[in-house]
Amino acid sequence: MLAAVFALITASACATADAVEQPPRVVQPGAPGEASRVVTDPVRAKDLPYTDADVAFMQGMIGHHAQALEMTALLATRTASDDMKLLARRIEISQADEIGMMQRWLEVRGRAVPGEHAHHAPGATLMPGMLTPAEMAELAAARGPEFDRLFLQFMIKHHEGALIMVRDLFAQVGAAQQGEIFAFASDVEADQSIEIRRMQQMLGAGR
Fold first, then answer.
1. Percentage of residues in the chain with pLDDT exceeding 70?
2. How many domains does the structure of the chain reveal?
3. Do 130 and 78 share a structural domain?
4. Sequential DSSP letters for 127-176
5. Main-chain dihedrals φ then ψ at residue 111, nearest 5 degrees
6. Pair 162, 192: CB distance under 8 Å
7. How far is residue 66's CA from residue 162's CA, in Å, rounded to a whole number?
């Protein structure tokens, strides 16, 4: 009887140890048309291969986010709306943090880190949805309700451009497979889609 109990305890202990030692499952999304696969090592999951498309996405999104911060900085002296200020604060916090993350991601991999104001350089290519110098000047010149209207219209356009960048990234074969890239691009898609709907509601309420 004692031998049977001992055998049962030993078997349970081994099963528990196996469960503890078994690495967590990390699912790597497949490229378009390909199945996902399981990566059992969480450290390696973070270091999955990245592509030139991933690098270009991070480099381009730094300038895209930087312009959004330039837009929100205008609110301090141009609007009296608490709702507008709250919206701007949300955008500022999330996009400033994400700029830092993108810069670190590029630095760790030895890739070029563009300056946050590189999009102001002569001949610089603007990412989808980014405002032209003329549009930025128009926004800076507005005040009060007119500024609020322009800001919402332009920021909706800006966010929609970010969604285009995400869709273009996901459409590239082999891109967005590395863990941080996939998580970041997915967050951009989810967060900015929500903010677009919120801004559309605010724009409709102001008419």
1. 76
2. 2
3. yes
4. PTTPPPHHHHHHHHH--HHHHHHHHHHHHHHHHHHHHHHHHHHHHSTTTT
5. -100, 155
6. yes
7. 12
* Residue 46 pLDDT level (bands cut at 50, 70, 90): low
- Indicate if 35 and 90 belong to the same structural domain: no
- Residue whose C-alpha is closest to residue 91's, from 37, 30, 158: 158
CA neighbours closer than 13 Å in the CB half-sphere of residue 3? 0
Beta carbons of 192 and 63 less than 8 angstroms apart: no
Instruction: Tell me, yes or no, if the pTM score tops 0.85.
Output: no
d(CA 192, CA 173): 24
Name the DSSP letter for residue 125: P
In angstroms, rounded to a whole number, what is the distance separating the alpha carbons of residues 127 and 10? 62
Do residue 103 and residue 132 come from a single domain? yes
Phi, psi dihedral angles at 38 (to 5 degrees): -95, 130
- What value does the mean pLDDT take over residues 89-105? 96
State the Cα torsion 122-125-128-131 to the nearest 10°. 0
* Structural domain that includes position 184: 49-205
From CA 184, how far away is CA 203, in angstroms rounded? 28
SS3 of residue 113 by DSSP = coil
Pair 109, 141 in one domain:
yes
